[in-house]
Amino acid sequence: MTNEGTQPLTGITVKDPWCSAQPAPFDLAGAATTQVTCDHPNVTLGDDKHVDTATVSNVKYPDGTLGEKTATATIRVNPPPAIDKAGDFAWLDQNRNGLQDSGEPGVEGIKVTLKDGAGGTVATKTTDASGKYLFDQLKDGTYQVCFDVANLPAGYQPTQKDAGDDATDSDADADGCTPPTTLGADKREDLTLDLGLTPPVTVAE
Ligand SMILES: [Ca+2]
Ligand SMILES: [Ca+2]
Ligand SMILES: [Ca+2]
Q1: Domain boundary among 50, 74, 98
Q2: Cα(27) to centroid of ligand 1, in Å?
Q3: Domain contains 3
């Protein structure tokens, strides 16, 4: 905000319905400029391009009070908030059909690495007691999930890949990595990135 005149202004009161708390009234010397900031709770991607209208009132100069003025600004949420997700399951493929059948349990403690499109490590997780893992708060981009199949419990192996519907099949290659998935406006989450493990073969004596 700039005082375009030469006289000092006092009691400048900015009201902005977008602000969670209104800025305190302030003064501005002649020709001076200041920046007024406020917080807005929980900015989301939906707030991008919001047109905000602020009202300035109660402005006093040495000889009187100025009339109320309004100013508009277009809010840009930039960069977009990191809201994408990738996940979410490692399970024991007891009947070795490559599909998540009811009753087949999750596998805990499998290390999962999230890689970016260039193959760099973004983050690592470990599957929880239910066999679940989730990478969230991701920026738009291309990702790949790699399960640490080099350090599986003895006798466990990745089951066959892409045996059926993506929602219930295993997606990891023999090296433990899934194909790349691209997250963005068209796909905010991909929770089909799963690993099935076959249990050790028991040999009858
Ligand atoms: Ca199965
Ligand atoms: Ca698949
Ligand atoms: Ca899948």
Answers
A1: 74
A2: 71
A3: no
Measure 197 CA to ligand 1 centroid, in angstroms: 9
What is the rounded distance in angstroms from the CA atom of residue 14 to the CA atom of residue 3? 14
Q: Which helix (H) or strand (E) holds 56?
A: strand 51-57
Which residues does 77 contact at the CB level (< 8 Å), separation at least 6? 43, 44, 45, 47, 48
**Tell me: the pLDDT tens digits for 120-130?**
999 999 999 99
Number of structural domains, the chain? 2
CA distance 100 to 185: 29
Claim to verify: residue 27 and residue 94 sit in the same structural domain: no
| pLDDT tens figures, 130-153 | 999 999 999 999 999 999 999 998
Q: 187: domain range? A: 84-198
> Which structure tokens are listed for 46?
């939906």
| pLDDT at residue 2 greater than cutoff 70 | yes
The domain that holds 93 is classified in CATH as 2.60.40.10
In a shared domain, residues 89 and 190 = yes
d(CA 176, CA 95): 20
Ligand 2 centroid from CA 176, angstroms = 13
